[in-house]
Recover the amino acids of this structure.
């Protein structure tokens, strides 16, 4: 039923969960982001979210090849990459981590995808992603992942079959020798 123009519009009072509370200690205005996203509308959406969160340097690409060119030319502090049919986000992630042209193989990489089955999450984790952001996403979820990266600078592990952030998120004792070689973690924001 159409609204009567003479009736005032009733605005719903925002709930606490609707409000994006920014951490005053986390200044992301100097953080540079690179967005790799296949579809133009999602590229624009994620780029807009990052700018609205305070990032001034946000660059975007529609193909892994162009994104790698942008990254080699001027490294970003954080990378958001799509992983969908027609866009090999895992291949791009591996190029960031292992390609000899990559100026920062320890860059935090957020995999942004609708592939949310546990096997997809494990696959991305095992190829060196830092965080996993499910589509559709909210600005709050994007910010939560950025904050998580800044708060937990996990060391990088280099093995013959893996290079990426330590997959363990909590400290657990285990019997035996620690066989991992640690690379220094890279800071996201100061």
């Amino acid at each position: 039923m159409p609204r009567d123009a003479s009736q005032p519009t009733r605005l719903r009072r925002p709930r606490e969960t609707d409000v994006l509370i920014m951490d005053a200690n986390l200044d992301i205005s100097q953080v540079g982001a690179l967005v790799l996203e296949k579809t133009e509308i999602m590229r624009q959406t994620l780029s807009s979210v990052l700018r609205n969160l305070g990032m001034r340097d946000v660059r975007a690409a529609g193909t892994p090849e162009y994104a790698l060119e942008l990254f080699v030319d001027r490294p970003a502090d954080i990378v958001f990459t799509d992983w969908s049919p027609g866009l090999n986000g895992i291949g791009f992630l591996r190029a960031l981590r292992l390609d000899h042209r990559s100026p920062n193989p320890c860059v935090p990489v957020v995999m942004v995808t609708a592939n949310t089955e546990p096997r997809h999450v494990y696959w991305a984790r095992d190829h060196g992603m830092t965080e996993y952001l499910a589509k559709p996403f909210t600005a709050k979820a994007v910010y939560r992942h950025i904050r998580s990266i800044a708060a937990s600078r996990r060391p990088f592990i280099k093995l013959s079959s893996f290079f990426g952030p330590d997959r363990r998120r909590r400290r657990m004792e285990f019997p035996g020798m620690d066989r991992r070689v640690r690379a220094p973690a890279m800071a996201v924001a100061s």
Remarks:
- The mean pLDDT is 80.
- Helices lie at 40-52, 64-73, 89-98, 118-125, 139-151.
- Residues 40-52 form the longest helix (13 residues).
